[in-house]
Amino acid sequence: MSLVAPPNDAPVDARISGKFTGTVRDAKPMSVPGNTGGLHGKRLTGISLPFIGQPLQGFFGFAMVRAEDRSVYVLTDNGFGSKANSPDTMLFFSRMMANFDTGAVDIKETVFLHDPAFKVPFRISWEATESRYLTGSDFDLESIQRVGDTIWIGDEFGPYLIEADLDGRVKGVYPTMLDGRQLKGSDTPGISATSVIGTDWTVPRSGGYEGMALQPGTGLLWAMLEKPLLAASGEDFLRVMAFDPAARSWIGASFKFKLAEGATTIGDFNFIDETRALVIERDNGEGEPSLKCAGDPQPNCFPNPAMVKHVVLIDTASVDADGYVRRIGEIDLMNIADPEGRARISTDGGEDGRFSLPFFTIEDVMRVDDTHIMVAVDNNLPFSSGRKLDAAADNEVVLLSVPEMLAAK
Description:
By secondary structure, this protein is mainly beta. It has one helix and 28 strands. The strands form nine sheets. Strands 11-12-13-14-15 form a five-stranded antiparallel β-sheet, with no helix packed on it.
């Protein structure tokens, strides 16, 4: 349970976060027990809302380019899962350093996004404040990259691309353009109950930029939608579209990524060289399959366990006639060899010698070197508990040796 203090010039509203996750506002700290929700049996996680401060956990996306001290830029989620319940959570990114010898994960810096120059083209939650910090009611941050001295962030609500400096000052907000039209979602400002689904808005809720990769050589950002567009009948792929950060414009290039059977969404997307890239694909399950509930959900079982949790290697230089990118490698995050017992935490329902990531949301992946990748978990603080039946999930960072996959052509 990692929390950070808001900046001194943030509104008083920021001092206690998660006040709106129930049906009414509740400002008494630690008074509302967190649970896993209906999909996962409403098991209690042992952590209660609201929080004193801001939740650090909920990692969404690694930037491919590291900071000068070799720390990794990592994005924290918009708060508690929706535009409606996150108006008191602040938007920020951090620099993280993981020491796999000691198990320590250090946060070197946390940078809060703010809009003093009024670059955001709509009214923000804290519009009237002098500091104009952004909140989880303004954007849903899901992916991050560093280009020079600029941070680029992919948002799900718009979906938008956000340009900010290394101090978190917003420099621009760019809508998504496809074939001359702006793509909009159900949470895009201006969309209302009278808007026509599939016409006025075509990006499903939570269907914006879950992954955004920086391509070496070209310098292009490739942004991947989390879900198929609603307007396309029978569309069975995720669109990946190219944005030129130097020109600040969409260039019209795109390809299609098709999920494996059983997968429902992607978690992150990062290049490992000029054409090949890693993609996390996953289902919505959490918990070890060996503890699947036989009937109604009970405290000692997982009603919807994790089944499909993959890291996939694709080759963007190899796209077929229909626009689908070629998959050239894959690892199963539910079946990781751990013969030396290096995992520092046990898994309910697990077995000796096998490590797994039985989490609802696995949202971060990047290449470390020629043989290793780093994967991290979004633990949806305080709502997920995939590794333990009765405890909130930790925000785990994992180093994996995968030489065969990284060498695949």
